[in-house]
Amino acid sequence: MCKKLHTLNLSHNKIKVIGGLEELVSLENLNISSNFVEADGLNGLLDCPSLTNVDISENLIEKKE
User: Fold this and answer.
1) pLDDT per residue as tens digits for the range 29-52
2) Cβ atoms < 10 Å from Cβ of 2
3) In contact, 54 and 32? CB cutoff 8 Å
4) Calpha distance 6→28 (Å, rounded)
5) 62 three-state secondary structure
6) Spatial separation of the C-alpha atoms in residues 33 and 14, rounded to whole Å
7) What is the mean pLDDT of residues 5-34?
8) Distance CA 1, CA 3 (A)
9) Residues 30, 20, 33, 37, CA torsion sign
């Protein structure tokens, strides 16, 4: 795994669940825009406390009213 990775762009991929980020201890920027992620598929983000910037736009996340 790339432990020194600072930026990861996974946009436009058909991803449904985010996970396996716990080894990316230096990851600060994550782009997962334009995928198929739903709100409950974001739990894997909690495994990466170094994240400061996350783009989750254009996914299947519904706004609560």
Assistant:
1) 999 999 999 988 888 888 888 999
2) 10
3) yes
4) 5
5) coil
6) 10
7) 94
8) 6
9) negative
Dig out the tokens for 1 from the structure: 């795994």
**What pLDDT, on a 0 to 100 scale, did the predictor assign at position 22?**
87
Q: Are 52 and 28 in contact (CB under 8 A)?
A: yes
Residue 41 per-residue DSSP state: G
How far out from the chain centre does Cα 38 lie? 11
- The predicted structure's pLDDT at residue 37: 93
Instruction: For the beta carbon of residue 31, count every other beta carbon within 10 angstroms.
Output: 17
Taking phi first (over 0 means left), then psi (-120 to 50 degrees means alpha), and beta for anything else, what does residue 62 get?
beta
User: How confident is the model at residue 49, as a pLDDT?
Assistant: 86
> What is the strand order of the sheet 53-55 is part of?
7-9, 29-31, 53-55
